[in-house]
Amino acid sequence: MKKHKQLTISLFTIGFCLVFSNCPAQSYQTDVLQNKNEFKWPKGKKMGLTLTFDDARLSQPDKGIPLLDKYGVKATFYVSPGSMEQRLDSWRKAVESGHEIGNHSLTHPCTGNFDWSRDNALEDFTLHEMQINLDSANKRIMRGLDVQPISFAFPCGQKFIGRGSNAKSYIPVVSKMFETGRGWLDEGPNDPLFCDMSQLTGMELDGKSVDQVKKIIESAKNKSQWLILVGHEMDEAGDQTSLLSTIEAICKYALDPSNGIWIDNVHQIASYIKEKRDGTQ
After folding, report:
1. What is the pLDDT at residue 38?
2. Residue 242 phi/psi, 5° resolution?
3. Bridge partners, residue 77, by sequence
4. How are beta strands 160-161 and 168-169 bridged, if at all?
5. Number of C-alpha atoms within 13 angstroms, CB side, residue 140?
6. 26: confidence class by pLDDT, cuts 50, 70, 90
7. Sheet strands (E) in the chain
8. Eight-state DSSP code of residue 217
9. Which residues pair with 228 in a beta bridge?
10. What is the pLDDT at residue 28?
11. pTM (2 decimals)?
């Protein structure tokens, strides 16, 4: 009787998986055409695409921004004030060119499981201390670039402070201070009809080839989504580097009208989505 019951449960489980085709916990079907949402992008576009880069790495103003400017593509740069201040004149030119400057915190706190963040560990922060950290970064950016950031990127993509029963999300802090908050190493694009502006997904651009990125773009386009790509260094090679050749190919691909892509910075696309959603989320 026990074996019969186990067999019945197993057959039910198999049947459930076959019917719903989603038995694995994470079945993204990135290469399969899924149901489109009903979101209407402007001017007949089929998706939104945003290039974002973190930390104010020196290669960004030195090599990456001139390449983007060549194509008139506007990106969002989430800067760490200390690095930003090493190239103030270049970052001021980036602002004049229409690139968005976002907040990436003052001290870039991440989990203390990273040795380099042990003395700046999220586990040791309070919500009040995090708010001060983000506000201090805003003030440094305003002082250096005369820009008030309205976009934020979670350092390391991590959204908590504290530990155990005292751990808390700091997404509500970001929600009060910024128009948007962006993650990192996420596993899919944003559904414009559903996404939480305070925890937008960001997919890794670093190290990816043109073909790898195009596959992600086309999958997002098939579902009328907003794809936010995240990079760090902007160079020909190296660790945690978005390849200049890939970035250039993305610009060309996105600017081809036949591909139906709206490429713009986070604020511009977020503002449009919020307007279309009637400011309800």
Report:
1. 79
2. -85, 120
3. 53, 101
4. antiparallel
5. 21
6. very low
7. 47-54, 76-79, 100-103, 151-153, 160-161, 168-169, 180-182, 203-204, 226-231, 233-235, 241-243, 261-263
8. H
9. 50
10. 43
11. 0.87
Rounded-to-integer distance, Cα 154 and Cα 172, Å: 13
Question: Which is nearest to 188 in space by CA: 176, 174, 200, 170?
Answer: 200
pLDDT band at 20 (very low <50, low <70, confident <90, very high): very low
- Find, among 165, 205, 208, 201, the residue nearest to 184 by Cα: 201
Cα–Cα distance measured from residue 160 to residue 194, given in angstroms and rounded to the nearest whole number: 22
Tens digit of pLDDT for each residue in 104-138?
A: 999 999 999 999 999 999 999 999 999 999 999 99
Which candidate, 280, 237, 266, places its Cα nearest to that of 101?
266
Handedness of CA 89, 104, 233, 243 (dihedral sign): negative
Percent of the chain at pLDDT above 90? 85
What is the H or E stretch that residue 267 is in?
helix 266-276
CB 266 within 8 A of CB 151: yes
Do 266 and 180 touch, CB atoms closer than 8 A?
A: yes
Distances (CA, A) of 69 to 12, 73, 266: 57, 6, 17
Residue 107 · residue 120 · CB < 8 Å:
yes
The answer to whether 222 and 34 are in contact (CB under 8 A) is yes
